[in-house]
Amino acid sequence: MPNEVSGTRPGWTRPGPPLLLDGGLIDGRMVLEGASPSTTRHRITWTPTAGGDEVRQLWETSEDEGTTWTVAFDGRYQRVPR
């Protein structure tokens, strides 16, 4: 589900059901995990590259309370040169 700019709310928003995530820095990565209103668990990990100009976002979902994970999104964000 993509993030979007809403005409009724300021800034960016993620449409759909709420997704409550908790976590923090683990070994230099930001890891947040939680559940949606369904039984699906979500784990999102942001990992900076060694050079610092790129961040990988790995979004995984689990239908068995975290025993196994499936990749939902694997993307990279690059710093825009100024």
Question: If you had to describe this structure to a student in words, what would you say it looks like?
Answer:
The protein has 82 residues and is mostly beta strands. The chain has one domain (17-78). It has no helices and seven strands. The protein has strands spanning 4-5, 12-13, 20-26, 29-35, 41-48, 54-62, 70-78. A five-stranded antiparallel beta sheet has the order 3-4-5-6-7, with no helix packed on it. The mean pLDDT is 85.
Write out key terms for the chains shown.
82 residues, mainly beta, 5-stranded antiparallel sheet, two-stranded antiparallel sheet, 0% helix, 54% strand, globular
| Helix segment tally | 0
Beta-strand portion reads: over 45%
Distance between the termini: 30 Å
Main sheet characteristics: 5 strands, antiparallel
Give the helix/strand layout.
Blueprint: E1 4-5, E2 12-13, E3 20-26, E4 29-35, E5 41-48, E6 54-62, E7 70-78
Question: How would you briefly describe this protein structure?
Answer:
The chain is built from no helices and seven strands. The chain has strands spanning 4-5, 12-13, 20-26, 29-35, 41-48, 54-62, 70-78.
